[in-house]
């Protein structure tokens, strides 16, 4: 059965698009090291760090610092770009890379501003975050100058945030306040979660609390980042209550997050300091997401309410920044992510329940826009970053979600499209695209055999990857990685379960999942060959 016949129950425009993605021979998405995404050519080496040396990303020396596990080449050298799109808070701008207290690479502030002018993913309304690969407090003068040039040279109108664990003087706050008066929508984020000094050395609690107070007193909105909350270390009620009461009068919002766990250093680092991680972290080594074995966000929210705090405890950095743009700066701003969308439906009654009504209204109004207008903005964004020929469909399964047909865009690319479109955007990859990203994940990220994969089957608007030789928990682990790397709602099916179910039950299950838009014989043919021992990694 050919592809057009397989989708013949689909409305014409959609089945043509869906059938075509099985035949698209070209991978439509950048390579993770593409300098369009994270340019590195402008770095100047200082010679103070030897090749392969590793350590935390700044002199604070946090033992969990994710800079020890990100953006490394085979020799272990830092390969992070001075511009990066890979964080929730916005486009990351960095004038330096560090290993502990030593500066490894640098770029002049004016040169960085010149580079971002040509950065394809930048817009004047973009969320921007300063020096988050180290700490802006290492050189407040340079951080302030970077914020000033964004406003004066680029006419930046979006939020400009910075995350710090260091102190700030009254004079330095005055300078930030001066730049704020020029039009910079500054948001200060101070990380403080009550962790022991052995885990976060060189950053006393009182210093961070003073930084919060000084920023807030000058009218710069402050977010307390209660991150990372780590089971068995700083998640007891006494510690959470102490932190909340300490920041009660000093911040405008609170965010909560978990711990990045890297199998090559995180667990050993905590053990070496006398704080062995709970077994749950060893079972959840998944470096592209923070681990939070329990719902500490709700715990903090409950404790804040009990203690009488007025500040909103947000689930995401972008949500908190959007809230402050709307409520403090008077610039109604919907969440750039947007986190108010989930595959199950709109999150306004659940994930967003804590948000102020004024902010919920802003995001809700964005959700009610005409799909044609949102698709138009998404196509314009795609065109700017080199994908003018890719089509965009509205998802049948998830509200306020667009699908880039044939796209294998990376997370960073989709962040830009989402920010400009205003709705959630995912890939709907071609067969070549889903195969490439999936097999690449098995080889490079997981170090697993690519023989685990038996087939790729498009069911409605979702790819299903059939794997063999793994148990249920392992299949869920694979599914999480496949979804992350494909930026698509991949479903993983176990070949052993399909054999147990038989052709009829399996075909009926797939028909239901497809909304019965696909022909039954299409699935019978695919599943029949699969259960008979055929492996189809190269042909649709």
What does this structure look like?
This protein has 540 residues and is α/β, with parallel strands linked by helices. Among the domains are: 127 residues, no CATH class; 232 residues, no CATH class. The chain is 38% helix and 15% strand. The strands form 5 sheets. An 8-stranded mixed beta sheet has the order 2-3-6-7-8-9-10-11, sandwiched between helices. A 3-stranded antiparallel beta sheet has the order 1-5-4, with no helix packed on it. The longest helix has 19 residues. The radius of gyration is 24 Å and the shape is globular.
User: How far is it from the N-terminal to the C-terminal residue, by CA?
Assistant: 10 Å
The description of the largest β-sheet is:
8 strands, mixed
Major beta sheet, strand line-up: 2-3-6-7-8-9-10-11
Helix-residue proportion: 25-40%
Q: Give Rg in angstroms.
A: 24 Å
Shape: globular
Average pLDDT works out at 89
Give me the number of helical elements. 18
State the total count of DSSP E strands.
Answer: 19
Structural class: alpha/beta
Q: List unreliable stretches of 5+ residues.
A: 1-13, 535-540
Question: What would you say about this model in short?
Answer:
This protein has 540 residues and is an alpha/beta fold. 38% of the residues lie in helices and 15% in strands.
Task: Give the key terms.
540 residues, alpha/beta, eight-stranded mixed β-sheet, three-stranded antiparallel β-sheet, 18 helices, globular, disordered N terminus, disordered C terminus
């Amino acid at each position: 059965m050919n592809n057009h016949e397989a989708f013949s129950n689909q409305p014409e425009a959609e089945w043509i698009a869906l059938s075509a993605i099985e035949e698209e021979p070209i991978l439509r998405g950048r390579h993770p090291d593409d300098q369009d995404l994270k340019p590195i050519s402008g770095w100047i080496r200082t010679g103070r760090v030897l090749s392969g040396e590793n350590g935390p990303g700044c002199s604070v020396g946090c033992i969990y610092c994710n800079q020890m596990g990100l953006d490394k080449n085979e020799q272990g050298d830092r390969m992070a770009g001075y511009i990066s799109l890979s964080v929730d808070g916005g486009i990351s701008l960095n004038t330096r890379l560090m290993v502990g207290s030593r500066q490894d690479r640098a770029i002049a502030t004016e040169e960085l501003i010149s580079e971002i002018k040509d950065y394809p993913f930048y817009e004047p309304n973009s969320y921007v975050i300063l020096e988050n690969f180290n700490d802006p407090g290492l050189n407040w003068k340079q951080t302030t100058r970077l914020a000033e040039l964004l406003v004066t040279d680029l006419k930046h109108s979006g939020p400009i945030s910075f995350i710090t664990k260091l102190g700030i003087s009254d004079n330095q706050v005055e300078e930030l306040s001066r730049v704020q008066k020029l039009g910079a929508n500054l948001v200060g984020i101070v990380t403080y979660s009550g962790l022991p000094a052995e885990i976060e050395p060189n950053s006393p609690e009182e210093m961070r609390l003073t930084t919060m107070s000084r920023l807030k007193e000058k009218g710069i909105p402050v977010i307390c980042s209660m991150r990372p909350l780590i089971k068995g270390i700083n998640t007891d009620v006494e510690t959470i209550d102490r932190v909340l009461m300490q920041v009660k009068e000093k911040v405008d919002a609170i965010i909560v997050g978990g711990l990045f766990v890297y199998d090559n250093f995180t667990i050993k680092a905590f053990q070496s300091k006398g704080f062995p991680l709970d077994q749950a972290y060893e079972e959840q080594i998944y470096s592209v997401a923070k681990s939070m074995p329990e719902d500490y966000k709700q715990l903090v929210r409950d404790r804040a309410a009990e203690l009488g705090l007025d500040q909103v405890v947000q689930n995401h950095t972008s949500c908190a920044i959007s809230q402050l743009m709307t409520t403090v700066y008077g610039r109604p701003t919907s969440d750039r992510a947007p986190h108010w969308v989930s595959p199950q439906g709109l999150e306004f009654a659940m994930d967003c329940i804590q948000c102020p009504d004024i902010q919920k209204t802003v995001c809700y109004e964005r959700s009610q826009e005409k799909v044609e207008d949102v698709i138009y903005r998404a196509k314009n964004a795609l065109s700017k970053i080199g994908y003018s020929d890719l089509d965009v469909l509205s998802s049948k399964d998830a509200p306020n979600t667009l699908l880039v047909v044939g796209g294998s865009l990376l997370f960073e690319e989709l962040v830009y499209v989402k920010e400009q479109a205003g709705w959630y955007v995912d890939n709907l990859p071609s067969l070549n695209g889903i195969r490439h990203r999936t097999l690449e994940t098995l080889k490079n990220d997981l170090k697993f055999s690519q023989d685990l994969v038996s087939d790729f089957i498009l069911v409605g608007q979702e790819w299903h990857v059939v794997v063999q030789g793994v148990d249920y928990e392992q299949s869920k682990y694979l599914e999480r990685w496949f979804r992350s790397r494909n930026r698509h709602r991949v479903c993983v099916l176990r070949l052993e379960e399909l054999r147990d179910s038989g052709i009829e039950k399996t075909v009926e299950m797939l028909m239901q999942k497809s909304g019965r838009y696909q022909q039954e014989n299409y699935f019978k043919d695919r599943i029949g060959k699969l259960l008979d021992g055929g492996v189809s990694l190269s042909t649709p």
